[in-house]
Amino acid sequence: SSGLLSLVLMFLLFSLVLVFFLKKNKTVRLPPGPPALPLLGNILQLDSKAPFKSLEELSKRYGPVFMVYIGTLPVLVLCGYKAVKEALVDHGEEFSGRGEIPVTKRSTKGYGLIFSNGERWKQLRRFSLMTLKNFGMGKRSIEERIQEEAQYLVEEFRKTEELPFSPVTRINCAVSNIICSIVFGDRFDYEDKNFLKLLHMINESFKLISSGWGQLYNTFPNLMYYLPGPHNKIFENAENYKKLIPNISYCKKKKKKKQSPTQSSTCFQSGSLQEKDNPSSEFHLENLMISTSNLFTAGSETTSTTLRYGFLILLRYPHIQEKIHQEIDQVIGRNRSPAMENRMKMPYTEAVLHEIQRFLDIVPMNVPHSVIQDTQFRGYTIPKGTTVFPLLSSVLYDPDYFDSAETFNPGHFLDENGHFKKNEAFIPFSTGKRICLGEGLARMELFLFFTTLLQNFTFKSLVDPEEIDITPGLSGFGNLPRPYEFCALKR
């Protein structure tokens, strides 16, 4: 009987191999790629700590357009600015689908702005753009809200009395309060328990998705679904988040007699009333909850992480911090709040902010795309539904566009006269039809929070700057800085 069992197992394995390779070779002109194992695909060839680096290494052998298998999922990988731009911009419509990420598919069920497709995505994107536009044109502009919040953050830093502290929670609170102004029409106190609970869940989930556990789930979702492990906290947080948001919204409504007419949940509710008789409308509670989650995660976690990473880099290079101080003193002074109109007169600060975003490379593999139809691309046929990884790391570190890309150098964005210069390969918010719609908001937040804090403080490291490690502490879905503390010395 043992011999029969072995024979059956061998037959099953042979069948799986046959099906796998028949499926792989069904289309004659698929892009090249490394040989893949049945069931595992190319997962053993990827570094779990930094999978995007493994893909970039493979591109040296197979070119800027190649195929890999993540488990049994075929993935088109695009490396370098030219390939990414050609796909996402020149073939923007064909590459406008959102690729499947098992961990987010389970937690969002395909709802919300970021991970939806088709008509649902189009409706939610129009709504989100309208909300941000209306908010900016309201009684109090987004810029004024950020300026006000930046002053609250300065006060929080002053409370440390120049003693060592970690900036994580304070910066998270400040940046998230801008999203709260849009979603709830009001800000939160930095000690608010519900607010801190919400931020903790978002931060924890972002770390887990970027960890090896998140990558394991994305590779073997059908198996990991049933296994215990830290990855299950992602889905637990998603459910708790849905319960927490209505409570926060209700408390805010009780607290404020008059709601902001640009409050996004109010806009969403009015949209649902207008389209209540439209069976194809996407304005319902599930989409509201997930879209709100998308706004918080994409609009707060990424910006606060960029700021934290930026200040760590300034600790590593004190001379850069000093040059920014000089530019702030010359252009803004010490007695008025920084404003967006100052940015054009501060080329060095602007160059540093751009270089922080480039060097950090916060979402190195990009959020996956997919092709919405059979697509001819560079002589290859890409089957409809194929997941696409347009590697942002390969663009932001493209040696054809950035000299000494591996080093932190604000000179990447300065000409020989010290004037700011643009670089077409600077696309930290991606590009094409799926470009981050919060790009304008994020750029405004980065400039105003960054300059307001540096106007008021000098950041001092607790160790010799030469000892500071500015490589990511965690690299997966996102690049995250290593934990650190510093002293905020009053200027």
From TrEMBL:
Cofactor: heme
Gene3D superfamilies in UniProt: Cytochrome P450
Keyword Oxidoreductase: yes
GO CC list: endoplasmic reticulum membrane
GO biological process per UniProt: epoxygenase P450 pathway; xenobiotic metabolic process
Recorded GO MF terms: arachidonate epoxygenase activity; heme binding; iron ion binding; oxidoreductase activity, acting on paired donors, with incorporation or reduction of molecular oxygen, reduced flavin or flavoprotein as one donor, and incorporation of one atom of oxygen
Membrane-traversing stretches: 6-22, 62-84
Binding site for heme: 436
Record keywords, A-Z: Endoplasmic reticulum, Heme, Iron, Membrane, Metal-binding, Microsome, Monooxygenase, Oxidoreductase, Transmembrane, Transmembrane helix
Subcellular location: Endoplasmic reticulum membrane; Microsome membrane
Family: Belongs to the cytochrome P450 family.
Protein name (Swiss-Prot/TrEMBL): Uncharacterized protein
Organism encoding this protein: Latimeria chalumnae (Coelacanth)
